[in-house]
């Protein structure tokens, strides 16, 4: 049985080699927490095969649609910061799947919200580096979900 890793990936790690699974994950969280759309684009597969299913964007297919979700988050008044923890990495020949949890905060000028999200991220080796091809995120607490969606809008 694979033991979950409890040390969080925040995006501020020294290990950020996108040729290594933990490095690709760290790159994603650096892009997300830093609101860096160019780095986010490098982390994702740019093809129409990429997909995302999360509380803000629903199901999105293709990088162009996924990009719109990140643009909305990054340009909004709310600041969202998350870290990935309690995770396992399932590595195959040219793909890996990271399954775990995110915790973080959403802050606006008027309010703050603690976030708890179940998360999976699937990466594929493309052109010598790991690129994200799928993300799924779920917020189990219905009240938290409603508040999160309202504060990011």
The number of domains: 1
Strand order of the largest sheet: 2-1-6-5-4-3
Q: What percent strand?
A: 35-45%
Q: Do you know the CATH topology?
A: Nuclear Transport Factor 2, Chain: A
The total count of helices amounts to: 4
Report the major sheet: 6 strands, mixed
Helix content: 25-40%
Class inferred from helices and paired strands: alpha+beta
- For the termini, the CA-CA separation is 41 Å
pLDDT averaged over residues: 93
C-alpha-based Rg, rounded: 15 Å
Number of strands: 6
Task: Summarize the structure in words.
The chain is of the alpha+beta class. It has one domain: Nuclear Transport Factor 2, Chain: A. Helix content is 29%, strand content 39%. The chain has four helices and six strands. It has helices at residues 21-33, 37-43, 63-75, 142-152; strands at 51-54, 58-61, 79-91, 95-107, 112-126, 129-138. A six-stranded mixed beta sheet has the order 2-1-6-5-4-3. The chain is globular, with a radius of gyration of 15 Å. The relative contact order is 0.19. The model has no long low-confidence stretch (mean pLDDT 93).
């Amino acid at each position: 049985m694979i033991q979950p890793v409890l040390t969080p990936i925040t995006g501020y790690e020294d290990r950020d080699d996108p040729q290594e699974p933990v490095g690709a994950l760290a790159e994603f969280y650096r892009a997300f927490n830093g609101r860096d759309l160019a780095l986010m684009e490098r982390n994702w597969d740019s093809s129409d095969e990429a997909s995302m299913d999360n509380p803000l964007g629903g199901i999105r297919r293709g990088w162009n649609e996924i990009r719109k979700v990140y643009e909305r988050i990054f340009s909004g008044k709310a600041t969202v910061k998350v870290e990935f923890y309690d995770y396992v990495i399932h590595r195959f020949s040219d793909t890996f799947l990271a399954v775990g949890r995110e915790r973080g905060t959403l802050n606006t000028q008027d309010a703050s919200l603690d976030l708890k999200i179940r998360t999976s991220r699937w990466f594929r080796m493309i052109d010598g580096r790991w690129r994200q091809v799928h993300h799924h995120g779920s917020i189990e607490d219905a009240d938290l979900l409603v508040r999160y969606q309202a504060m990011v809008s």
